[in-house]
Design a protein that fits this description.
There is one protein chain. With 446 residues, the chain is mainly alpha-helical. The chain has one domain. Helix content is 66%, strand content 1%. It contains 20 helices and 2 strands. The chain has a two-stranded antiparallel ribbon with strand order 1-2. It is globular, with a radius of gyration of 22 Å. It starts with a helix and ends in a 9-residue tail after the last helix.
Length: 446
Amino acid sequence: MRRLLSVFRALILSRRPVTLVVWGYALYILVGFGLLCLPWAHARPGVPALDSLFVATSAVSTTGLSTIGVADSYNFFGELVIAALIQLGGIGYMTLGSFVMLALRQRLDTLHSSVAQQTFALPQGADVAQFIRGVVIFTVVIEAIGAAVLTSAFAADGVPAPLWNGIFHSISAFCTAGFSLFGDGLEGFRDNVTVNLAIAALSYLGAIGFIVMSDWWRWLILRRRRVSLTSRLILRVTVVLAVLGTLALFLTDPTLDRLPVGERLLASFFQVMTAMTTVGFDTVPINTLGRASIMLLIVAMIMGASPSGTGGGIKSTTVAVFYGAVRAALTGRTELTLLGRAINPRRVTMAVAAVGMYIGFLVLGIFALLLVDRHDLLPLMFEAASAIGTVGLSLGVTADLSEGGKWVVIVLMFVGRLGPMTAGLAMFPPISRARQGRSRRADIAV
């Protein structure tokens, strides 16, 4: 038995970290799917297996799209499984196992370190063990505070089972999953300032990422003088997009224009927040918004959250580097600079590749949905952008998707959780150094 385990471990170690990440999330989904298929997880008989697979994939990918009502289809055990899948998917593959190993051994082995580096997109030289500890502690503290605030708000509003609803929605918000136990999501709380701001705070804290939290903790508590360029970029891009998006929605949407000014501002802020953090909650039915607002939300979903966070999308830093590359090309500069710092050319190449891979997967997803489903272009485009961005917003077509459409969305959600760049790296083996050496440079017109 010991020899068999050693052979299995050697096989695992021989794999690239990016491949192990793919296998790890696939295993989470399969285990979750198996548990959700158990009869004692159902609140009603006859929950289709494909819908349970859809929900399991949506939970692990922290998307929030669902072809069936969660509260209507699953009992407390099923909801507990979904919450656990959201938590595991949100904090990243192997994070919990790595934390247990650190508690027992005070160190990480090569396998856990390399997979954590790939999962969180950590910069070279980062202290992986310290980062893992920070992730788990930060997650527990923030979710506990969020659960306490939401439980109090739900109890004051007369919501049944306020404690469980508070815990579930705190996990779902921080992990930017967007799953709700309410049939209409958070639409019943559109004017509830406490619920709106608590969900927004949890979502932003999860979306901006653990790198930012780690940096600011060291700056505030340990008195470290400098905050990293990554953290400053993330915060600047997040604030700018949040402010511009909220103003655009507030000033232009005809549906929100009918609300009182205060409620309209809160609703505008929340819809932009839910798209750019990829949390996927809504306080206003998305299919009632104007077409320009829907286009704005699609752009926000594509841009997405931040690296090492719980959200999806292209990522704020990648958007910033891509913008910098365009600006450098237009101004004739040979070096890309952001916030006064020169960016490593390899990072620029990776950013351009990430944007290309993301758009490529999105276009393929839209094309596949149009082939297998009967809905119009705009709802399916929105659905595809929401799935690959792991957002969870919909124009109301998720429950009506064809069987083929459900499979397409499942694949998109899985790719979105991995990140299109990670999915691409797993699909294509790296080029050997010898082969790279035989390449010759050439100039082409672009």
